[in-house]
Specification:
Layout: H1 2-15, H2 21-32, H3 38-59, H4 70-158, H5 165-192, H6 195-200, H7 202-217, E1 221-227, E2 230-231, H8 234-255, E3 260-267, E4 270-277, H9 297-307, E5 311-316, E6 322-329, E7 335-336, E8 343-347
Parallel strand pairs: 1-3
Antiparallel strand pairs: 1-8, 2-7, 3-4, 4-6, 5-6
Length: 349
């Protein structure tokens, strides 16, 4: 481009032909327009402006320069035209860049929206599968185990006088094993889909799960409820409950916590779930890719929160414990539970 301009200047100089500088020099400016480089545009405009007056100085004999001389005035007008073309091209470059930036932002937002919809759908499918599996365990396995337990008790009562001590011991062991199996299966069903979540809502489900968590891990855990107690949407309650499960599991496995507090805060327009422990903590800014057996918890919680449009924050530092905070704007499906008084800070478990 610069070579083209330089060649035109040389032709103008050699032939002493008063060419239209704006028409000649606008060609290189137009050629650089697709590159959309304002710096290159103005460098070329400045170079051509200087070249225009250099050619004029070379062509005018010494002592013949006059401000009103037609040849000089034409050169000034040509440079003005040249700069006007550069300004228009600069505006065009900025406009094109702004349109591309806007289109890229719209595309990114659409991709995020599609990803959120896919995540939400995945969560719904997972919860449906959990619910179906819990129902099947109850109907197919639970009922048969209950029937087996009843049958063994009948056999024991009817044969109590005729069976020897060894058989009676075996029978007692079998009954105990059946009862333990029923209890284990009930726990699995509650993990898959706690009925208390459907029947009584998130706060009741958190109280139940925290109680089980404390018995299982030995970590003292407290549930605190703030604000008015009310039901959220089904998807929101499911998601917040699953995030609480995952955060408590992380506290037990990695944090070496001495105490965990689960806080559910509900206020007009917003609900917030916080799981805070006093464990070893970590640096959230240092992210490692998930590997086998670890590293998936935070990613899963973040994706679950994103699926319902909630904000997900991890506040932690080495030696200062960890807080997992999920903030959700209430939707139209949130409903108040009548008859339950509000409390600013009420320990409930």
């Amino acid at each position: 481009m610069f070579v083209i301009a330089l060649g035109l200047v040389v032709v103008d100089l050699v032939t002493w032909v008063q060419l239209d500088i704006a028409a000649i020099f606008s060609l290189p400016l137009v050629l650089i327009a697709p590159s959309r480089s304002p710096r290159l545009l103005w460098f070329l405009a400045a170079s051509l402006t200087v070249a225009t007056f250099v050619v004029y100085v070379i062509q005018i004999p010494p002592g013949m320069f006059l401000l009103g001389e037609t040849f000089f005035v034409n050169r000034v007008l040509d440079v003005a035209d040249l700069l006007l073309i550069a300004v228009l091209l600069h505006i065009r470059m900025n406009s094109a860049e702004a349109r591309e930036t806007q289109a890229r932002l719209i595309k990114e937002q659409n991709e995020k929206l599609d990803a959120a919809k896919a995540s939400r759908r995945l969560v719904e499918v997972q919860e449906t599968e959990r619910r179906d599996l819990a129902i099947q365990l109850h109907d197919l396995v639970g009922q048969k185990l209950t029937a087996l337990n009843i049958s063994l008790n009948i056999v024991k009562m009817e044969s109590a006088a005729s069976i020897d001590a060894q058989v009676n011991t075996r029978l007692d062991d079998s009954l105990k094993l059946v009862e333990e199996t029923i209890e284990s299966m009930r726990n699995v069903m509650m993990e898959l889909r706690p009925a208390v979540l459907d029947d009584y809502g998130l706060s009741a489900a958190l109280r139940w799960y925290v109680e089980q968590f404390g018995k299982r891990t030995g970590i003292p855990t407290t549930v605190v409820e703030q604000g008015s107690r009310r039901r959220l949407s089904c998807a929101a309650e499911e998601t917040l409950f699953r995030i609480a499960q995952e955060a408590l599991a992380n506290a037990a496995k990695y944090a070496r916590a001495g105490h965990v507090t689960v806080t559910l805060h509900t206020a007009p327009g917003v609900s917030r779930l916080t799981i805070a422990d006093d464990g070893c903590g970590f640096d959230p800014s240092v992210r490692h890719p998930p590997a086998r057996g670890h590293g998936w918890g935070l990613m899963i919680m973040r994706e679950r929160a994103a699926a319902i449009g909630a904000a997900f924050v991890v506040d932690s530092a080495p030696g200062r414990g960890t807080r997992v905070i999920v903030t959700l704007g209430d939707d139209a499906s949130s409903t108040s539970i009548p008859g339950l008084p509000a409390s600013d800070r009420q320990p409930i478990a």
